Amino acid sequence: MISKRAFLTGLAASAVAGPALAQTQTVPASLAANAKPIDAAERLARIDKLQGLMQAQGIAALLVEFGSTLDYFTGIQWWTSERVTAAVLPAKGAAIIVTPAFEEPSVRETLQIEADVRPWNEHENPEALIVQALKDRGFTSGRIAIEPDVRFFIVDALKAQSPAYELVSGQGLVNACRQIKSPAELALIQVANDITIAALRQVHSAVKAGMTSHDISTLMNQATVALGGAPEFSMVLLNEASAYPHGSKQAQTVREGSVILMDCGCSVHGYESDISRSWVYGEPSAKQRKVWETVKRGQEIALAAARSGVPVGSIDDAVRTYYEKEGWGPGYRLPGLSHRTGHGIGMDGHESPYLVHSDLTPLAAGMCFSDEPGLYIPGEFGIRLEDCWHMTEAGPKLFTPLARSIDDPI
Length: 410
Fold this sequence. Notes:
Helices cover 34% and strands 21% of the residues. The protein has 11 helices and 17 strands. It has helices at 4-13, 40-57, 68-74, 104-110, 126-136, 152-161, 171-178, 183-206, 213-226, 286-304, 313-325, and strands at 59-64, 86-90, 95-100, 115-120, 142-146, 165-169, 230-238, 259-268, 271-272, 275-280, 342-344, 351-355, 368-371, 375-377, 381-383, 387-392, 395-398. Strand 5 (142-146), helix 6 (152-161) and strand 6 (165-169) form a beta-alpha-beta unit. Helix 2 packs across helix 7 (171-178), helix 5 crosses helix 6 (152-161) and helix 10 (286-304) runs antiparallel to helix 11 (313-325). The protein is elongated and about 70 Å long.
């Protein structure tokens, strides 16, 4: 199984066979050179917060498998396979790591906290090891929270090992920790956004007639790597494909009057950016200008609606009220805005909470979101502008300035 990151890293590595940025362009030095990764002290503080929440809610432990939450608490960077590598984060005491014996050295390479590592051999049962670890900590029964990415076969095996435990969702615990970003996290998200906007600026000036989506995406990956970011995605939608938020398989090339929609992001020490820019190659039509300006106004309305304590979904509502007055929609209907106004962002490109009508999470300082109220006209074109922001006590603060105009979009 290959991850999106690995796939896009491969694209970047293969870019030597594709177009290159002009020799005359000056590529800045790595913007990530001074970025500081999350240290062990912060990860331990996260676990301390988690343990306080679990004790208050009568939960004995949180079980975490592969993915960003495992990295968030322990530093371990691991992938999915048929073999179980997981962390048991008990309500008291040090973390317990269960992993195949032959993987232990590799797991320890990224483990950043003191932990009780319990390896298992191929003939052994990792779920039995998890249950034994809980018993060793004095938790012979009680509620065990399961992080959402833990696979069903593990949950099922835990039930078979010991019916004394009640398995419950760990989503609320994880959200309570991860939704509010620390200053160190905000700094890494800032660097990732700085890299992506700088790369977009380079690519914008390099786009030529006849280029394909792949050509432009290759340039974006090259620029991102040169600036010190790890490419996560570089989606390029041309012409009619821009009317579909995640594109089309139909081949498209740049021509006079083409709408070019780029949605790109990178990772810096595990934290992500997500920026979209749309413009027209050549002279925009009156309709293209009008739609672009409407989306820009939608972004501004989203930020104006961001006030501490309001349900995050009300930001989505504010944008749709404006769009409907302009003749779009109604609601999520096309032509109009068919997706949410934004999503949380941090270690995952999309994470809770979401700027969508049904999300009642109160907006709080430290939360980070995208602001991307695009408009899409099937069969014609779409415009999406996207910048990320975080909430402060004084109001929303952008990581990157909003696009200036359709003629100067970066």
